[in-house]
């Protein structure tokens, strides 16, 4: 097997750049972010950061892919014998019922970044890809439940799109209003919907 | 009854300012909007516009209230003998299945404006009020169905919050991705959810 001796090194530099981007985003938000502020959070040679990325938007587009890759990887390891528990687990990770301050901040950041997609084609492609991958993850969990005979034979993609719409809508509500009870109501109603539609 | 002879005149000037704001928003979007561009769309004396509003954000905050007032007034006149048809009517108005270009533009504008609420307290209050009022409208339609014996005795507010989350999530998807089939899937799934949960 051919091994590229630099692959690990390159991979870890990119991960560190993404983690620096995340720290800078948490500190400064989208509007306060600049490539030099990301560089401030980066411990290795700053020139490698400037070498890879021309602008903060370049970095953020890469960051969104990195973040959804991580999310997918973490979800993939969480399969249990109970498809409904798995589904509720994915939902809780995407929209925690009692978010920590950091989770709340990430959600606000995502809502802020997503609004760039109204006018910016690159962000638009990224968020389409993110939604597509989240629907695929949710669909797979639902289809596993159908295969096991635990769930009804529903149109899994349609149910997944419904779940994602509730999650995105409630995430926007949380980030743009103080209607916290609304988020809880939507989550409770979503669970009872899934119970009614899926549980055999 | 005491009548303020200037009330109509004041009311119509304000309506015209709001309509000028709407036209300016459609032409320039949120980021391209300025108070002078709104003034360009205003046919009366520009000084009255500058007299009432200090900044474009002042005007937009007033505009959001104006828009939701209009929406509520139009929904209130649409009560039929069929609560499910009324509910579907409100949903179709908030998230048209086949939007015109203008409806699509309004939705993109709302998503763009709402993102200001992540960091701006005044926009945050406005969007909390808008969501609250939409939930009230939806709740009233559901409660009417319960009173008439057409709907099951559900927690009407909880169902209304679920509906609003789907609508807001799908509206964001439409404005920030090209996943048009996702919006259709969410709408179809929402209708079947309401049928399952509400219809006796």
Question: Summarize this, please?
Answer:
The structure is a homodimer of 200-residue chains. In chain A, 76% of the residues lie in helices and 0% in strands. With 200 residues, the first copy, chain A, is mostly helical.
| CATH class descriptor name of the largest domain in chain A | Mainly Alpha
Tell me what portion of residues of chain A adopts beta-strand conformation: under 5%
Using the CA coordinates, give the radius of gyration of chain A: 19 Å
Briefly note the structural class of the backbone of chain A.
mainly alpha
| Average pLDDT figure of chain A | 89
Major beta-sheet overview of chain A: none
CATH architecture of the largest domain in chain A: Orthogonal Bundle
| SSE sequence of chain A, one letter per element | HHHHHHHHH
Count of distinct structural domains of chain A: 2
Number-wise, the strands of chain A total 0
Q: Show unreliable segments of chain A.
A: none
Number of helices of chain A: 9
DNA-binding region (chains A, B): 34-53
Organism (chains A, B): Halomarina ordinaria
Keywords (chains A, B): DNA-binding, Repressor, Transcription, Transcription regulation
GO molecular function (chains A, B): DNA binding
Question: Overview of this structure, please?
Answer:
2 copies of one chain form a homodimer. Chain A is mainly α. Chain A folds into 2 domains: 1-53, Arc Repressor Mutant, subunit A (Orthogonal Bundle); 57-198, Tetracycline Repressor, domain 2, CATH 1.10.357.10. Helices cover 76% and strands 0% of the residues of chain A. The first copy, chain A, has 9 helices and no strands. In chain A, helix 5 packs antiparallel against helix 7 (121-147) and helix 6 crosses helix 8. The longest helix of chain A has 27 residues, at 121-147. The radius of gyration of chain A is 19 Å and the shape is elongated. Chain A starts with 6 loop residues before the first helix and ends with a helix. Chains A and B meet through helix 6, helix 7, helix 8 and helix 9 of A and helix 6, helix 7, helix 8 and helix 9 of B.
């Amino acid at each position: 097997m051919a091994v590229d001796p630099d692959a690990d090194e390159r991979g870890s530099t990119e991960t560190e750049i993404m983690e620096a981007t995340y720290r800078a985003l948490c500190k400064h938000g989208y509007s306060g972010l600049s490539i030099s502020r990301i560089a401030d959070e980066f411990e290795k040679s700053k020139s490698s950061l400037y070498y890879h990325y021309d602008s903060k938007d370049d970095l953020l587009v890469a960051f969104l892919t990195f973040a959804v890759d991580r999310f997918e990887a973490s979800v993939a390891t969480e399969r249990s014998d109970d498809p409904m528990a798995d589904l509720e687990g994915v939902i809780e990770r995407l929209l925690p019922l009692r978010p920590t301050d950091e989770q709340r901040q990430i959600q606000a950041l995502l809502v802020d970044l997503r609004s760039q997609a109204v006018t910016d084609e690159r962000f638009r492609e990224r968020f389409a890809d993110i939604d597509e991958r989240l629907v695929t993850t949710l669909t797979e969990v639902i289809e596993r439940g159908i295969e096991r005979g635990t769930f009804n034979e529903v149109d899994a993609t349609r149910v997944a799109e419904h779940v994602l719409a509730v999650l995105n809508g409630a995430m926007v509500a949380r980030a743009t209003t103080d209607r916290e009870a609304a988020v809880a109501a939507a989550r409770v109603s979503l669970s009872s919907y899934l119970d009614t539609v899926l549980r055999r």
